[in-house]
């Protein structure tokens, strides 16, 4: 499994996250509204996973392990988090 609830505050993405993990990640985010996403161990992510990250607005603990994610997806997610605050208020 590549989407793992580490604790109530952290959801980890590990290895290569396939399309099915988009739904798993969404379920984890809904069940744990204050959790951040740790993607230090994420080597690659299907577009479905990236879309969930984009709309979630959750803080990411990174950088990710994968070069493509680090160079292209990470900056897009950072821009999103500064433009829109979709995270639940604390």
Structure description:
The protein is an alpha/beta fold and 90 residues long. It has one domain (3-83). 43% of the residues lie in helices and 28% in strands. The chain has three helices and four strands; from the N terminus they run ββαβαβα. The chain has helices at residues 20-31, 47-56, 67-83; strands at 3-7, 10-17, 36-45, 60-61. The protein has a four-stranded mixed sheet. A hairpin with a 2-residue loop joins β1 (3-7) and β2 (10-17). α1 packs parallel to α2 (47-56). The longest helix is centred in the C-terminal third of the chain and has 17 residues, at 67-83. It is globular, with a radius of gyration of 12 Å. The model has no long low-confidence stretch (mean pLDDT 89).
Report mean pLDDT, rounded to a whole number: 89
Overall tally of domains: 1
Cα shape: globular
The share of residues in extended strands comes to: 25-35%
Strand order of the largest sheet: 1-2-3-4
- Quickly count the helices: 3
Global Rg = 12 Å
Query: What fraction, in percent, of the residue positions are helical?
Result: 40-55%
The chain-level structural class is alpha/beta
Low-confidence stretches: none
The separation of the N and C termini measures 29 Å
Q: Largest sheet, described in full?
A: 4 strands, mixed
Number of strands: 4
Topology:
Layout: E1 3-7, E2 10-17, H1 20-31, E3 36-45, H2 47-56, E4 60-61, H3 67-83
Parallel strand pairs: 2-3, 3-4
Antiparallel strand pairs: 1-2
């Amino acid at each position: 499994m590549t989407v793992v609830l580490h604790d109530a505050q952290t959801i980890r993405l590990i290895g290569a996250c396939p399309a099915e993990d988009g739904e798993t990640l969404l379920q984890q985010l809904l069940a744990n509204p204050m959790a951040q996403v740790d993607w230090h161990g994420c080597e690659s992510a299907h577009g479905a996973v990236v879309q969930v990250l984009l709309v979630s607005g959750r803080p990411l603990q990174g950088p990710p392990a994968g070069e493509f994610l680090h160079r292209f997806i990470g900056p897009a997610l950072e821009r999103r988090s500064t433009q829109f605050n979709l995270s639940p208020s604390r």
